[in-house]
Predict the 3D structure of the following.
Amino acid sequence: MAADKVIFRRWKDTQTIIALFPEIPEGNRLQYVQSFEHIGQHGAADYQIVLNQTIPAKLSESDVQDLIRELESRGYTLRVGKRKDKWDDAVRMRRIQEMNAALRE
């Protein structure tokens, strides 16, 4: 199984960690990516809004390592990245198209 790209960010206000999956769509709109936090679990995230309200998280930090362990215990194989790129958008768009095609069948 292919690894899921994940980007870890720290909220400026609460200092908690959010994991963003830039290749996994949340719904059928390109702007939303799947996200995960200890509290709240999975949800949709507007990547740009989250970016504006967070700072990069360091992989060496214990709360990031805790979230990595939690994600891996849920079956994720992670590929850690630092930022979203145009290829992530292309992968997410392809997945949206595949989901829409499956719904039409």
